[in-house]
């Protein structure tokens, strides 16, 4: 091993800082999945009939489907009957009406995660929805948002309060039978966030959801639905963490974005699920379907993701550019180390005239990890004047990791212009020597080099989160150099 | 300040230094000359702590303590500076961030308060003017898109910024036109002081017209075979390395 590799492997050995377990009384289902489980889940959530029917239909569909195996991933077959499909902290029948009613243990959990649920805390100006296992525990800043006409609430609440919106849009972007994990999610999703931005409204603050898996043997299946009406704008961020456990845990989420004329959604993710230990034991299996439907003219979606966690990541935030002049952007940093495997990328489906998309993907592999970019740019027959620019860069730390790039291009209108650039580079011994010769210690040097590599993506994150993402990379790389 | 005794070193199994000894005192400027492959750059890499090089025998003391036991960054923090012959690029990391981190690492080691961004920018702007670099270079990536001359000026700028105890300049003159050479030399001369030593490594004597050394050493096959004053360099220029019985591949010495 060269000097840099040794340093990197030592840096990587540091522990995952969100690995604690909160000791909290919970109501959980016994492991197993069948129609009765879905009926119970729907009953606990007090759902209207249409919702139960939808779930059951999705479940029956799922039973006929096969787990996909085309991704560049290697993991044992998941036993879906060994998973509990519902776990919620015990508490009074009604949702807590204010923070005072929230279990203080839960508040402490979020404090330890650095997520202030107290509205005057440091992330002032960011409304937070906190989802703990299968339920949303609190949503902050509801009042000022309501004044602006913005709805921001747990999706379980939206099902009750805004059934017509949910019925209209749920599954409209990611149909229940879209893929294996989306079908599973449609059957058993437990909570998640719902956002509605009315016509002409610019959401007055950043919205953010934090997902926390706490209970053992429990899967998390959250569902997020965001609707941006004509001429509206919202910036939304999700963050995720989980305790350190030896068993793998399943997270299968679905995110649907609906974007109408001249509206824009900026969707940022800082994914820090437990990645497993240095021998590849434990960690979250993250199988996520995220898609935006840019239906309106000149509508825009911008996906920014920083992925450092999970044992397995299977995730391709996509943009369906239907509206004329609509824009899709995808900015991604995916870091893998130890035995982590990531197969992630995006799909840009150009259907409307003069639609444009930009893809900037930065993959960083360290340890024995495998990091794959998989991207599709599809140009439909009506997508005259479509344009795409793709840039995929891989950075290798050490020589036991792997980086793969699978760019796919399908169809092509004659007037479409597609550009693709790809690079692979290494954190070199020379770079490390230069930094250390200037008195910079190896950890700081690797972190600086990696942050430099990711700069063009971090610039796309909301400011507070860009700082968070930079720190997260630093923590994730700790032990990579010593 | 620096005492090198019987230093042997190899890289990738190939022995390069074969018993090199050298004493350098504070305030002195030494020049090491020699043909390509004589071990000049290896000496600078070994002193700075490049782990690709292995010390097989001998010792090096800096200010009385064993230099070779110390990690690269500790040597730097204690005042050893190497101006690289071919500084590597670090894409996306600005000079500003890189140098700010470096300056603060050294200050921290000395127990001095770290400089905030505003204080650092002021210092960096002033220093960059000394080597005729437009302060806008601070926003650019480390050595990214720099011309050969800019890279060299950047290295000297860093020496001025970090104020080392011992500055090792590895072929700082190579690839410079006469104007750039003058700027770089002015920078190095500004570094000269009673409590600092400078070790210049060069193939050509041209540089020594601008930075006049106190001592000149000729390196051949990993050993110093002749030492003298300024006049030794002039004699080498006139008579070539062949005069000392050394074969020089680069015939164009000027």
Write structural notes for this entry.
The complex is a heterodimer of chains A (482) and B (254). Chain A has helices at 3-11, 35-44, 49-63, 104-112, 142-147, 155-161, 163-169, 180-188, 429-437, 442-458, 463-477; strands spanning 26-28, 87-89, 126-132, 135-139, 151-154, 193-197, 206-212, 223-228, 233-241, 248-251, 254-259, 264-271, 283-294, 300-307, 312-315, 318-321, 327-336, 341-350, 356-365, 370-379, 387-396, 402-410, 417-426. Chain A is an alpha/beta fold. Chain A has one domain (2-476). Chain B is α/β, with parallel strands linked by helices. Chain B has helices at 40-48, 72-77, 95-109, 117-130, 148-162, 178-191, 230-239; strands at residues 2-11, 14-24, 29-33, 53-62, 65-66, 80-83, 90-94, 141-142, 166-170, 197-202, 215-220, 223-228. In chain B, strand 4 and strand 5 (65-66) form a beta hairpin. Chain B is globular and about 55 Å long. The model of chain B has no long low-confidence stretch (mean pLDDT 91). The interface between A and B is medium-sized, with 26 and 31 residues.
Report on the biggest sheet of chain A.
11 strands, mixed
How many E-type strands of chain A? 23
Low-confidence stretches of chain B: none
Fraction of residues in helix of chain A: 10-25%
Beta-strand segment tally of chain B: 12
Mean pLDDT of chain B: 91
Residue stretches of chain A low in confidence (pLDDT < 50, at least 5 long) are 1-13, 120-124
Helix content of chain B: 25-40%
Radius of gyration of chain A: 22 Å
Tally of separate helices of chain A: 11
Question: What's the domain count of chain A?
Answer: 1
Strand content of chain B: 25-35%
Biggest sheet details of chain B: 6 strands, mixed
């Amino acid at each position: 091993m060269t000097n840099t590799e040794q340093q990197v492997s030592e840096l990587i050995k540091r522990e995952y800082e969100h690995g604690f377990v909160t000791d909290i009384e919970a109501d959980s289902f016994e492991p197993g999945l069948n129609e009765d489980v879905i009926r119970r889940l729907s009953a606990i959530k007090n759902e209207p009939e249409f919702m139960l029917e939808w779930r059951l239909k999705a479940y029956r569909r799922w039973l006929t489907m096969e787990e996909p195996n085309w991704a560049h991933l290697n993991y044992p077959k998941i036993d879906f009957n060994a998973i509990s499909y519902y776990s919620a902290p015990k508490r009074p029948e009604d949702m807590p009406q204010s923070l005072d009613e929230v279990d203080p243990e839960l508040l402490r959990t979020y404090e330890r995660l650095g997520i202030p649920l107290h509205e005057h805390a440091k992330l002032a100006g960011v409304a937070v929805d906190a989802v703990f296992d299968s339920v949303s525990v609190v949503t902050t800043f509801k009042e000022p948002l309501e004044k602006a006409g913005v709805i921001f609430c747990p999706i379980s609440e939206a099902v009750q309060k805004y059934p017509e919106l949910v019925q209209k849009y749920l599954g409209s972007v990611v149909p229940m039978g879209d893929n294996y994990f989306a079908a599973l999610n449609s059957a058993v999703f437990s909570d998640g966030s719902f956002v509605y931005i009315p016509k002409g409204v610019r959401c007055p603050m950043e919205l953010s959801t934090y997902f926390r898996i706490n209970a053992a043997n429990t899967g998390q299946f959250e569902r997020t639905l965001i609707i941006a009406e004509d001429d509206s704008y919202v910036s939304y961020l999700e963050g995720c963490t989980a305790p350190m456990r030896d068993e793998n845990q399943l997270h299968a989420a679905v995110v649907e974005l609906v974007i109408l004329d001249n509206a824009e959604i900026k969707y940022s993710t800082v994914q820090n699920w437990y990645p497993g230990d240095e021998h590849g034991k434990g960690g979250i299996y993250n199988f996520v379907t995220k898609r935006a439907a840019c239906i309106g003219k000149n509508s825009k979606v911008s996906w920014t993701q920083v992925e450092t966690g999970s044992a397995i990541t299977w995730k391709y935030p996509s943009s369906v550019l239907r509206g004329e002049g609509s824009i899709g952007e995808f900015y991604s940093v995916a870091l893998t180390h130890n035995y982590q495997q990531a197969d992630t990328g995006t799909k840009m489906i150009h259907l409307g005239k003069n639609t444009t998309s930009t893809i900037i993907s930065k993959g960083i592999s360290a340890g024995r990890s495998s990091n794959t970019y998989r991207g599709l740019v599809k140009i439909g027959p009506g997508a005259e004047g479509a344009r795409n620019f793709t840039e995929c860069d891989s950075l290798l730390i050490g020589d036991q990791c792997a980086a793969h790039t699978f760019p796919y291009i399908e169809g092509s209108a004659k007037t479409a212009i597609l550009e693709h650039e790809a690079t692979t580079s290494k954190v070199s011994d020379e770079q490390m020597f230069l930094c250390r010769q200037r008195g910079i210690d190896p950890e700081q040097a690797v972190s600086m080099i990696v942050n430099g590599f990711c700069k063009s993506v971090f610039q796309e994150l909301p400011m507070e989160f860009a700082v968070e993402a930079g720190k997260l990379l630093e923590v994730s790389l700790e032990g990579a150099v010593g | 300040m620096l005492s090198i005794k019987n230093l042997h070193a190899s890289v990738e199994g190939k022995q390069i230094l074969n018993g090199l000894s050298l004493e350098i005192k504070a305030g002195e400027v030494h020049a090491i000359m020699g043909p390509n492959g004589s071990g000049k750059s290896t000496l600078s890499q070994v002193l700075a702590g490049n782990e690709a090089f292995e010390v097989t025998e001998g010792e090096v003391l800096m200010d009385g303590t064993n230099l070779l036991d110390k990690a690269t960054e500790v040597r730097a923090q204690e005042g050893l500076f190497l101006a690289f012959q071919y500084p590597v690029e670090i894409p996306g990391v600005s000079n500003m961030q890189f140098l700010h981190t470096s300056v603060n690492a050294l200050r921290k080691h000395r127990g001095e308060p770290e400089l905030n961004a505003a204080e650092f920018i002021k210092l960096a702007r002033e220093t960059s003017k000394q080597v005729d670099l437009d302060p806008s270079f601070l926003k650019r990536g480390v050595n990214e898109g720099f011309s050969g001359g800019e890279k060299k000026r950047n290295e000297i700028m860093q020496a001025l910024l970090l104020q080392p105890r011992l500055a090792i300049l590895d072929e700082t003159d190579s690839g410079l036109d006469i104007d750039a050479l003058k700027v770089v030399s002015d920078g190095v001369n500004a570094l000269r002081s009673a409590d600092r030593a400078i070790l210049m490594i060069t193939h050509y004597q041209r540089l020594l017209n601008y930075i006049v050394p106190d001592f000149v050493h000729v390196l051949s096959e990993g050993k110093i075979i002749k030492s003298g004053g300024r006049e030794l360099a002039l004699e080498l220029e006139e008579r070539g390395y062949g005069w000392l019985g050394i074969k020089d591949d680069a015939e164009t010495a000027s």
